[in-house]
Amino acid sequence: MEFIRKLGTITLKYVSGMGLMTIFLVRTLLCAITPPFKVLNFLKQIRFIGAQSVFLIAFIGAFTGGVLALQSYYNLNKLGSVAFTGPLVTLAIIKELGPVLAAIMVTARAGSAMTAEIGIMRITNQIDAIEMMGLNPLRYLVVPALFAAVISMPLLTSIFDFLGIFGGYVVAVKILGMEAGTYLGEIPNYLDLKDIMEGLYKSISFGVIVSWVSCYKGYYTGTSGFGAEGVSKSTTQAVVLSSAMIVIWDYFMTALISL
Amino acid sequence: MVLKGVNLSVNKGEILVLIGMSGYGKSVLLKHIARLFKPDKGRVLIDGKDIAPLNSRDLSAIRSRLGFLFQGGALFESMSIFENVAFPLKEKLGLKRDEIRERVLQELDNVGLSGAEDKYPTQISGGMQKRAALARVLVWQPEIILFDEPTTGLDPIIGHAILQLIAELHSRKKFTAIIVTHELQRVFKIAHRAAMLHEGVIRAVGTPDEILTSEDPVVKQFISGETEGPISYR
Predict the structure, then answer these.
(1) How far does CA A78 lie from the centroid of its chain?
(2) Average confidence score pLDDT of chain A
(3) How far apart are the first and last CA of chain B?
(4) pTM for this structure?
(5) Interatomic CA distance for residues A213 and A57, integer angstroms
(6) Is-contact B185 B205, C-beta < 8 A?
(7) In this predicted structure, what is the pLDDT of residue B10?
(8) Among A37, B87, B109, B231, which is most buried by a count of CB atoms within 10 Å?
């Protein structure tokens, strides 16, 4: 009996949590489509989420492409198909690894910081202070982050993709000795606009997930503990939940697009 | 449930002090009055209008008449003192730059913070933070101001100065004030009435003298600070 009671409590907690998250997103979207728009806050977020993530994304992208080329070359060599190294690296990066890894990197770098910042504002009553001025905190804290993430993520993903393919090129051509023409020449034969669009759609949706989850966890800091501990827990939860949702959503999007 | 049926009315233009044991819901009551918390049941009336069921638009209108001085000040740490005080004028009232500057500098002067406008909250002392927060509350001239422990964490001299400032500003601006505090003796000097919240209900209301001389054993023990009596602190 105790087990059933606990199971019910946990289920209710998660279901109500999901409901609250959905309401939070709907309220944010309603704010997003009604003026006034906080352009300065949006530009600050673009700088923080987008511009300041470029180096990290470029670095991770180049090494991801490099390791992918390394693995592809050695394994395709066993089958006598090293010519497919270029297309394999390109398709894997553009369709999957680019959007997913870029989103996870943004979650780790910018998402966690967003949660911590909003969480600290919550526990120090700064969000209450905005409400007491008769203003909507979502308009100042969440909407700019949502727009910035939706715009930044495809751009960051493009940088990841480009440097990933370039990293693969450096490893395959400059280190492993493949012909440049073989690596690059086969790519147009296998890459369609549809593949590029798939990566683009994914990166936009991941932008929504990262900003939504990170801001939500910060905004409701205190439900999982108070003070600094609450902020710390919320930040961890934001990164874990955001990463998990990115991977799960990626599966469903791939399944839907591949239909 | 911290509050179990509070019945308290505050007269227009008066300073009412709310006292009680720590953790007995004084700040919670204040947040219910500001509708930062929604009551499970009961009503919070401002000029006869219940604010508990209001939608966000109507609530926004009511809140433009309210000010809340939070315990820690709640200044925006990423903004300078000037930007903090200017924030409600710019965002809420949409005033022009020159007018904002004039009103902000005037309000900072009122709270004795002239010259500190370019500093950030982390660069100034706790007392200055409280005064800056007070300036941010006063700048849009609310009719009702809720003070949540305005002197907590400050040394006695700065604490006294903050209370004198509140009294002085009240005499000039005639706002209605509810002050949650533990500073009985000094706050009682500026208060018109005092109320004690105990175990979720208002235990006593009266003038400061009536509260100080109350024969109610709970009020008496709280005022005297005795550890023995009906109030259990464990």
Answers:
(1) 35
(2) 94
(3) 19
(4) 0.91
(5) 20
(6) no
(7) 95
(8) B87
